[in-house]
Amino acid sequence: MPVVCAAQYKPYHGDGIDDYLRFVPIVSAYALKAAGVDSRSPWKRLLVNTATSFAVDAAFTYGLKFTVKSTRPDGTDRHSFPSGHTSFAFFGAAILDKEFRRVSPWISVAGYTVAAATATTGPTSLSVRP
């Protein structure tokens, strides 16, 4: 007789603030660029760098998720490590840093601070809390 986990029947309503925080660094990079702030790369190069970085980030993150197979504390799946939200936030922070570090180091600090906040708010989410 198969064991059925009650978590399989829980409706998904999102995890919390980290669902939104993960986008802040990359959206900030494009918003600053659109606002005319001097950046390291022209638009085409920025788009290529973003796409390439995202592809590498996703390949490593999801490759590890499907290799490690760490079960979430609520039992919903076996893809809890590494955090995709955190990985995406740090990918965006790295793009923000490389493009705007020369303008002000505080732009980089802000991007990495938001990424770190994403990492620390994720474990308080419903899917990772027992």
Give an overview of the whole structure.
The protein is mainly α and 130 residues long. 58% of the residues lie in helices and 0% in strands. The chain contains five helices and no strands. α2 packs parallel to α4 and α3 packs antiparallel against α4 (84-100). The radius of gyration is 17 Å and the shape is elongated.
Any descriptors?
5 helices
Q: What is shown here, in short?
A:
With 130 residues, this protein is an all-alpha fold.
Class per helix and strand makeup: mainly alpha
Q: What's the SSE pattern? A: HHHHH
Strand tally is: 0
Q: Residue share in helices?
A: 55-70%
Strand content: under 5%
Average of pLDDT:
81
End-to-end CA span: 25 Å
Cα-atom radius of gyration: 17 Å
* Largest β-sheet summary: none
**Oligomeric description of these chains:** single chain
Give unreliable regions as ranges: 126-130
Number of helices: 5
User: What's the overall geometry?
Assistant: elongated
